[in-house]
Design goal:
The complex is a heterodimer of chains A (about 350) and B (about 600). Chain A is α/β, with parallel strands linked by helices and about 350 residues long. Chain A has one domain: Rossmann fold, CATH 3.40.50.970. Chain A has twelve helices and 13 strands. In chain A, strand 11 and strand 12 form a beta hairpin. The longest helix of chain A has 15 residues. Chain A is globular and about 70 Å long. Chain B contains 21 helices and 23 strands. In chain B, strand 8, helix 14 and strand 9 form a beta-alpha-beta unit. Chain B is globular and about 90 Å long. Chain B starts with 8 loop residues before the first helix and ends in a 20-residue tail after the last strand. Classes of the chains: A alpha/beta (about 350), B alpha/beta (about 600). At the A-B interface, helix 1 and helix 8 of A face helix 19 and helix 21 of B. Bound molecules: flavin-adenine dinucleotide, thiamine diphosphate, iron/sulfur cluster (4 copies) and magnesium ion (MG). The site of one iron/sulfur cluster (SF4) has 14 residues of chain B, from helix 21. One iron/sulfur cluster (SF4) binds next to loops of chain A.
Chain lengths: ~350, ~600
């Protein structure tokens, strides 16, 4: 962390977005995380993505569980709504909020402990419901906040800073997401914002559940030589399946037709995947699973947009719930009284 | 890209924009921090080392440091730190520092130096050489020392007491000051056997404007610098009610404000060009306008109008200009004549050097404009042992340039007298020292202070014209000074980077409030520049480029233009790859040369 607040400087040439805001309007309070924590970089990527999408800060909702990662919702979008919930229970709160108002941008921030240990059940069900939200796992392989115990994502045989060996295999949120039918699945690395920011933006635009697993080194407890979640390991083992780009790229000799896969988003616009590997196909769930498995066995961390299905209905659509936010209805309509209740009950007698 | 060589003393020096822009390289942030700590005497002495006249310059310096100040660049509404007026704070509150001043040694070194003119240039030479045992003799034509600082800068801007004190500090070092002693022949002076001669006689000739009517109206047409001198020495104590000042440089500003104090009530400054092309500093224009001087643009003088043998006014040609999008004048046209009535006219259209007393057969070469040929490093003329400095060397400039010329000429004179080559001079040096005090604690105030520049308070308009020498500026109050010092960004506390330590976590990139850091693949300079987090706004400001980083071979690039020196990058860096280090720039003086009194290594860091 730092001991002084980041000052807000409107320096000459500072970029403004379509709302006339500079990126500082999307920042939050001063981070209290350890200096160099990957989570702070993800915070910066969030700030950048919301800024670039020109989302009005008051149209965003941040929800998180418990952990260093979950604390970060305080460090961006200070003008947004938010709830720092109970350990592993962020999906329930998000589901409730989104049910009441489907018009806001929901962003959930969680950790590998929060999602894959205590919160695994909630995580599975929010995927299953295809809640329209961006769900970011800030994955460091440990419980950072409680001083570095292995989490459920720690690699088999990985060592703690003190040399203790992890006897259990990891749970991979990407493979879980594929298995449970998630409609947008990506992986990235906190140390590579050029890669991460476009994914966050695409995830925010995706109508449905967008999962991004972000490798985010814990500098204090899991950045040592025998860690599979250190900066060094991540830089050395990143395998980028595709770069996400926003504008249609020029077809060149380096990038022939076919290396660029357009994906049409729910709103009709296209994003483009610049493939680095011809084997990779983000629209085929089985192939995506196989692709991730194959590279994982070589010790690689596969990054990129790994799977996308824009056709699946989100929770509101599937349940045919009302589109308008509940707070726009008059009280009498929301709560029609005991006569209306008696009518409903009559139908079940 | 080629990694930046930060051991080049000029690299970190350039980052300290004010110090780099100051001709004498005053250690500005150092003295501002001393003021912040209430160490006024220390701040004064530190100033004196480089600029010799802190009390004088704290009032009237041309302050090239301020337009250069980083603080003025960081935001659209931002103004530079009031560097100059803080210097005055140090001077005003210094107390008795006489015991800390240099002294002349009892044992002289046997060398005699003649200095012509008692302006800031000569005085600086004496200041640097007297402590080394030189016998310095200053010949001054006027009856008081100080040069134009005395004769032309009005006392309502620069009180005589301030001049007397700071000139006294130098003359008291057993300098032989001969007032009322114009040098009439260089040849005769050279025959007196001095070991070196320094010409600091200024640019004493005010330019004339030879238009119709000039002869007939001579009694009411004054040449600015001569007229100001006559006022300063009490030979002139009144002027007509309606005064026209021709020209819009700094001399014009002093002429118009002086006229108001001698009884004028309607003073107009007549400018040929639009405001963007004025030579006067913004603050001098503001001060004149505050006193209700009218500045009339786009009028070119045509003739003096004389009726019955007396000046009644001037005829001007009104001009219209075409200005291109770069702001340069591409065309002008006259759109008719305009008459302005006047009782007196003051010409303030520039000064020339004049050396009628230097014979042209002495081996001192003059060029076709009758300006002496002077070496820009050594300040030596084409005659060995004869040096020029201040306005006499390259034409009219300002006090702080005269001081810097004086320092450099003193080094040359010393080396000449010691039989050393004048061209081989001590290099500048730089010293770096960490300011880290604890995990997130630094030995300087790193938190950004958003306060706006303090405005200097002035004596009420109703009171300021009562006497000629009512000093207009009141100086900063304790509160104003306390706020203003915190505006300084401490640009000398440098971001020092060790590439081997960086784990490329991006923390510094994320936290930097001005987005001046980038980690990017190495490449050609243009390609790297195109990938910066924020495009370069001021390409003349340097880029810092690291050697390749350990994990990915990418490079760390920093655009020095906007850095606030807030230390957040270093606070957020997990490996201390960034550190905030105090740079001290060593500027050599004559005293640091062999045979001087302080070897360079022993000079204390600011
Ligand atoms: C009206 C006016 C206002 C100014 N205001 C400012 C200001 O606010 N800030 C600023 O920084 N600068 C200002 N300047 C410029 C500044 O005063 C000069 O640049 C500076 O004084 C030059 O110093 P110098 O030592 O070269 O010569 P000068 O100050 O000109 O001193 C030369 C001295 O040599 C003497 N002399 C000349 N010939 C002989 C001779 N043959 N024998 C003996 N003595 C001789 C002269 O009498 C004079 O005293 C101003 C100038 C003018 C004209
Ligand atoms: C119900 C409950 N059980 C346990 C804890 C203790 N606890 C706090 S944070 C945490 C683990 C957080 O790990 P992770 O989600 O990976 O976050 P990180 O700190 O690594 O970012 C645990 C177990 C708790 N706060 N609440
Ligand atoms: S303990 Fe680890 S996860 Fe928590 S803030 Fe520190 S570095 Fe980040
Ligand atoms: S901010 Fe301070 S150190 Fe930086 S240029 Fe301005 S006065 Fe000098
Ligand atoms: S000190 Fe560091 S963080 Fe602060 S402005 Fe400069 S580079 Fe950015
Ligand atoms: S914070 Fe330190 S380790 Fe991280 S990228 Fe910056 S210099 Fe490198
Ligand atoms: Mg964790």
């Amino acid at each position: 962390m730092s001991y002084i607040r980041k000052p807000n400087i409107t320096y000459k040439g500072r970029a403004k977005n379509a709302l006339g805001l500079s990126e500082s309007s999307y920042e939050g309070t001063m981070s209290t995380l350890c200096a160099g924590c990957g989570h702070d970089s993800i915070t910066a990527a969030m700030t950048r993505a919301f800024f670039e999408l020109s989302i009005p800060p008051n149209r965003a909702v941040k929800i998180s569980g418990i952990g260093c990662s979950s604390k970060t919702t305080a460090y961006f979008l200070s003008q947004s709504h938010g709830n720092n919930t109970v350990h592993g229970r962020m999906p329930s709160i998000a589901t409730g909020a989104a049910a009441a108002n489907g018009e806001l941008h929901y962003v959930g921030v969680s950790g590998d402990g929060d999602t894959l240990s205590i919160g695994l059940g909630q995580f599975a069900h929010v995927i299953r419901r295809n809640l329209n939200m961006l769900y970011v796992i800030e994955n460091n392989g440990v419980y950072g906040l409680t001083k570095g115990q292995f989490s459920a994502s720690a690699a088999f045989g990985a060592k703690t800073k003190k040399g203790e060996v992890n006897p259990n295999p990891p749970i991979d949120p990407v493979k879980m997401g594929l298995a449970l039918g998630a409609s947008f699945i990506a992986r990235s690395f906190s140390g590579d914002k050029n890669h991460l920011v476009p994914l966050i933006k695409a995830g925010l635009r995706h109508k449905g559940f967008a999962l991004i697993d972000v490798i985010s080194p814990c500098v204090t407890f899991n950045d040592h030589e025998d860690s599979a979640m250190s900066y060094k390991y991540a830089f050395a083992h990143m395998h980028t399946a595709a770069d996400l780009i926003e504008n249609k790229p020029e077809i060149t000799a380096d990038f022939p037709e076919g290396a660029v896969v357009p994906v049409t988003m729910h709103d009709g616009s296209d994003i483009y995947l610049k493939k680095t590997d011809p084997d990779y196909d983000p629209t085929d769930r089985a192939r995506a699973f196989e692709y991730v498995m194959r590279h994982q066995e070589k010790g690689e961390i596969v990054t990129g947009l790994l799977y996308i299905d824009e056709s699946r209905k989100d929770m509101h659509a599937a349940n045919q719930t009302v589109a308008a936010p509940l707070n726009t209805f008059p009280y009498e309509q929301l709560c029609p009284g005991s006569a209306a209740l008696a009518d409903v009950q009559k139908r079940f007698r | 890209m080629e990694p930046t060589n930060t051991s080049d003393p000029d690299y970190f020096h350039r980052v300290v924009d004010c110090q780099w822009a100051c001709p004498a390289h005053t250690a500005v942030p150092d003295y501002i921090r001393l003021i912040a700590q209430g160490r006024f005497a220390d701040a004064y002495m530190l100033n004196r080392e480089s600029n010799v006249f802190p009390g004088i310059l704290g009032r009237v310096c041309d302050r090239p440091c301020e337009p250069a100040c980083r603080r003025g660049r960081i935001g659209v509404e931002e103004k530079p730190v009031a560097i100059c007026r803080l210097k005055r704070v140090a001077a005003d509150h210094r107390g008795d520092i006489t015991a800390r001043l240099p002294t002349a040694p009892a044992q002289k070194n046997g060398k005699r130096v003649a200095l012509i003119g008692a302006g800031p240039a000569s005085l600086t030479v004496a200041n640097d050489l007297a402590p080394l045992g030189y016998q310095c003799t200053i010949f001054e034509a006027l009856d008081k020392p100080g040069g134009l600082m005395r004769s032309n800068i009005p006392s309502f801007r620069l009180p005589a007491k301030v001049l007397d004190e700071e000139i006294g500090y130098i003359v008291d070092m057993e300098v032989d000051l001969r007032l009322g002693s114009p040098v009439r022949s260089m040849k005769a002076l050279l025959n007196e056997g001095y070991d070196a001669v320094f010409v600091g006689s200024g640019a004493p000739k005010g330019k004339n404007l030879d238009l119709p009517g000039r002869q007939e109206a001579a009694d009411n047409i004054h040449i600015g610098i001569q007229w100001l001198e006559s006022v300063a020495f009490g030979h002139v104590d009144s002027i007509g009610k309606r005064v026209l000042i021709i020209g819009v440089g700094n001399t014009a500003m002093d002429c118009c404000r002086t006229s108001l104090r001698l009884g004028a009530t309607d003073v107009k400054v007549m400018a040929r060009k639009p405001r963007a092309f004025f030579k006067a500093s913004d603050w001098e224009l503001e001060d004149a306008e505050e006193e209700n001087v009218e500045i009339v643009i786009n009028h070119s003088p045509k003739s003096f109008v004389v009726e019955g043998g007396r000046l009644t006014g001037m005829m001007f040609e009104k001009l219209e200009y075409t200005v291109d999008d770069k702001g340069e004048i591409t065309d002008q046209k006259a759109v008719g004549d305009v008459f302005f009535p006047a009782d007196d006219v003051v010409l303030a259209i520039g000064q020339d050097n004049a050396f009628p007393w230097i014979e042209r057969d002495l081996g001192i070469a003059f060029n076709k404009w009758d300006v002496p040929t002077v070496d820009k490093t050594t300040y030596e003329s084409t005659r060995q042992g004869v040096f020029f400095g201040g306005d006499a060397a390259f034409g009219p400039a300002n006090i702080i340039w005269a001081v810097e010329h004086g320092h450099q000429a003193a080094i040359s004179i010393h080396r000449r007298c010691m039989g050393l080559p004048v061209t081989e001079r001590l290099p500048r040096g730089v010293n770096l020292r960490s300011t880290k005090m604890g995990v997130h604690e630094w030995s300087y105030s790193n938190d950004f202070d958003p306060a706006a520049r303090r405005k200097m308070q002035h004596v009420e308009l109703t009171q300021r014209f009562e006497k000629l020498d009512v000093e207009v500026e009141l100086g900063f109050t304790a509160e104003e000074a306390a706020t203003e010092v915190e505006r300084c960004l401490n640009c000398d506390i440098q971001t020092a980077f060790v590439p081997q330590l960086c784990t490329e976590c991006d923390a510094c990139i994320d936290i930097c409030p001005v987005d001046c850091l980038t980690i990017t693949p190495d490449g050609e300079p243009d390609a790297v520049a195109a990938r910066l987090t924020v495009p370069r706004e001021v390409p003349s400001q340097p880029l810092f480029v690291s050697s390749p980083l350990k994990l990915t071979g990418r490079i760390m690039v920093k655009d020095e233009n906007l850095c606030l020196h807030c230390g957040l990058c270093a606070e957020r860096c997990p490996t201390a790859a960034w550190d905030m280090q105090k740079s001290s720039i060593h500027i050599p003086y004559a005293g640091n040369e062999p045979g001087g009194h302080v070897p360079c290594q022993q000079r204390k860091a600011g």
